[in-house]
Design goal:
The chain has 3 helices and 16 strands. The chain is 12% helix and 37% strand. It is mainly beta.
Length: 189
């Protein structure tokens, strides 16, 4: 699944959240972070914590209970609806966050790399969940833009869906078939 994403400049993130989306974001100090975020990397995620909507730095990937040196960095949305308990249940129920990306990347079966963005949006909003100092990217079935590249895709959100993901019942956000994505094949290396 998504193997990395590009972090927008923090100034652009704050401007988008405060001015474009008119969110009551609380200013917080964030450490310097790389622009390219890979699993085990530190990135700011938007979450509601301590009665504040804020950007909080967290590590991409939950500790793997079976393999301590590895992380599990993607969580299938369908797991929340299964009757069998999972490590994600608490996070889906009460610890949802938003990953703010400039774009995200995927590789197809032939090792071709692609970049994906939300067209006509300055940032790509991706559903996430968190626990402690860790976050995971939420994935769902691919839409028509993604299906030729991978059998899963990040649960990309429209700006109007942000509050529903963070605070409300998110059942109707699972199907992303009509969510627009722009795809660009990157040069082979």
């Amino acid at each position: 699944m998504c193997h990395h994403f590009t972090l927008p400049e923090l100034k652009l993130i704050r401007q988008y959240l405060l001015n474009d989306l008119n969110l009551p974001l609380v200013e917080t100090a964030l450490p310097a972070m790389p622009r390219e975020i890979f699993p085990k990397g530190l990135a700011p995620v938007l979450l509601y914590q301590n009665n504040k909507l804020q950007l909080v730095p967290k590590v991409w990937g939950y500790p793997n209970p079976r393999k301590p040196k590895q992380v599990i960095f993607n969580a299938r949305i369908e797991r929340f609806f299964e009757s069998r308990p999972s490590m994600w249940d608490q996070s889906f129920a009460r610890q949802r966050c938003l990953i703010l990306a400039q774009n995200f990347y995927e590789t197809d079966r032939n090792k071709h790399n692609y970049s994906f963005t939300m067209p006509n949006q300055p940032l790509t909003l991706i559903a996430g969940i968190y626990d402690g100092d860790h976050f995971a990217m939420v994935t769902t079935e691919p839409n028509s833009t993604m299906v030729s590249v991978h059998n899963r895709m990040p649960l990309v959100l429209e700006p109007a869906e942000l509050r529903r993901w963070l605070f409300q019942n998110f059942t109707n956000l699972i199907n992303r078939q009509t969510t627009p994505l722009a795809k660009q094949q990157l040069p082979d290396q």
